[in-house]
Write a structure and sequence with these properties.
It contains 5 helices and 4 strands; from the N terminus they run H-E-E-E-H-H-E-H-H. By secondary structure, the chain is mainly alpha-helical.
């Protein structure tokens, strides 16, 4: 069977401290200098911010402006930063970090928009007028085929009636004794 053990308040606090120390140990440390990240992990910090703003689970896609992102989403992004990185006075830098994330997000949205526009210019998406023109050309191209189909249908009907007459002649004759 299982043995249940009661823990003292002191033991619980010690376990919580160990857990917190392990979490802090896993976070990279950096510093801010004139609202910019400096230190050994500055590149991974910036890279992580870029990953966060491109992650649709973090930053919503259907938002037209950074200002339209709800506060709880911004807080969620900030917590994702805090989970991975640590710094002295990091909470004082929240607005600067989110402002930088806004810049990264705007640059990313602009590049996505450019890629979509360039695909349209290469013929990925045609205008309504061009599509209508293609449709009319296809209809004109199919007109001779419709005429041939009608001719084949009338021939089929003609052959069907000849076959019926032939069948009647063959099967309606009395069999001759041999």
């Amino acid at each position: 069977g299982s043995v249940c053990r009661e823990f003292s308040l002191l033991e619980i606090i010690e376990m919580e401290c160990i857990t917190l120390r392990e979490q802090i140990k896993d976070r990279a440390f950096f510093s801010f200098y004139h609202n910019r990240v400096v230190g050994q992990h500055h590149a991974s910090f910036t890279r992580h911010l870029g990953i966060l703003v491109r992650d649709r689970n973090m930053c919503p896609l259907r938002v037209h402006s950074w200002a339209d992102i709800e506060e709880y989403k911004l807080q969620h992004m900030w917590e994702a930063v805090m989970d991975k990185f640590d710094s002295d006075y990091i909470n004082d830098q929240r607005d600067h970090v989110l402002k930088y994330m806004r810049k990264l997000w705007n640059n990313w949205r602009e590049s996505v928009h450019k890629n979509i526009k360039s695909k349209e210019l290469k013929g990925g998406n045609s205008s309504k007028a061009a599509l209508f023109e293609k449709l009319n050309a296809t209809v004109k191209e199919n007109e001779p085929l419709k005429g041939r189909l009608e001719g084949l249908e009338s021939k089929y009907d003609e052959l069907g009636s000849k076959y019926a007459k032939l069948e009647k002649i063959v099967f309606d004759q009395p069999s001759s004794p041999s």
